[in-house]
C-alpha cells in the first residue's frame, strides 16, 4: 500500500486538520480493532445504527460514552471466580475498546442490549442555523419565507 504524507495539508490549510487526521487514521487501518465484530447500517437519510456482537457481556460490563466527535464503547469483563477447564473455547471473552468517529451533528439517541447484540441508534440533527434557507430575489419578505419553512418543519416533525 502506498503511504501518503499529509504534512503539506497541515501547514497550508486552516480548519481542515480534522480531515487530514481522518486520512492519517484511515492509513493505520491495520491497527483498528476487529473484536468484537460489528455492523454499521444506514436506516434513513439521517439515521444510523451500530450493531455489535458482545456475547457473554452483561450490561454492567459495557460502557458507552459520546464526547464531541467520538463514540467510545468499552467492555471490561469481571473476573470469574475459580478456574474453569475448557475442552474447547470458541467464544471470545476478552476486554475491548472501540472508537467510532462521528460526523458533525450526529448524536446517540439510544442503546440496548438484546440477545448478545448491542444496538446503538444514532441520528444526525442539523441545527436550524446550518440548514439551507430560501432567499427570494428583490424581496423584502425574508422573514416570511423563513417563518413558512419553520412551520413546514414543525408540521413534518409532528407527522413523523
Shape: flat
The major sheet is characterized as: 4 strands, antiparallel
| Unreliable parts | none
Strand/helix succession: HHEEEEEEEH
Note the total helix count.
Answer: 3
The neighbouring-strand order within the major sheet is: 1-2-7-6
Report the helical percentage: 10-25%
Total strands: the figure is: 7
Question: Averaging pLDDT over every residue, what do you get?
Answer: 79
| Class inferred from helices and paired strands | alpha+beta
Give the N-terminus to C-terminus distance in angstroms.
46 Å
- Give the radius of gyration: 22 Å
Strand content: 25-35%
Describe the structure.
The protein has three helices and seven strands, in the order ααβββββββα. Helix content is 22%, strand content 31%. The chain has 160 residues and is of the alpha+beta class. Strand 3 and strand 4 form a beta hairpin. Strands 1-2-7-6 form a four-stranded antiparallel sheet, with no helix packed on it. It has a three-stranded antiparallel sheet with strand order 3-4-5, with no helix packed on it. The model has no long low-confidence stretch (mean pLDDT 79). The protein starts with 6 loop residues before the first helix and ends with a helix. It has helices at 7-12, 17-27, 142-159; strands at 38-44, 47-53, 62-67, 70-75, 96-101, 106-114, 117-124.
